[in-house]
Amino acid sequence: MALHEVELNETRCLIFGSKDSNPCSMLNCPSLTPIGPAALAAYRKVFNHVVASPRLGTKVLQIPEFYEVHGGDLQCVGHGICSNCVEKWERGHAVLRKKVWAMLPDVFGPQG
User: What's the rounded Cα separation, in Å, for the pair 11 and 60?
Assistant: First the structure.
């Protein structure tokens, strides 16, 4: 449960959090207006895609797929999100995975 809580909280901050200085690469990227309804719907879809699991547990140690094939084209799971935003999330999730790996000894306790 501790890992799942970290996953939910950190992923929420990563996806819904403030944008960095890396500008969007598309003029119609929903992240241009991050608190608008299009951005919130896209972010919610990405968040659910990253953390939703058909079974209990965490997927935080896995590398999430932020892209899907739609009509033969590779697109972000959050409709219209540009590649710069996805790359930011990929970098952030890599940092999150390192953080969680470092937490594992504390979660499972000392061995002996």
Answer: 9
What pLDDT score was predicted for residue 20?
67
Average per-residue pLDDT for the chain: 83
Label residue 41 exposed, middle or buried (CB < 10 Å: 0-12, 13-18, 19+).
Answer: middle
Which residue ranges make up each domain of the chain? 2-108
Q: Residues near 32 by Cβ (< 8 Å), separated by ≥ 6?
A: 24, 39
Report the amino acid identity of residue 95.
V
| Tens-digit pLDDT profile for residues 65-93 | 888 888 888 888 988 899 999 999 999 99
Strand, helix or coil for residue 35: coil
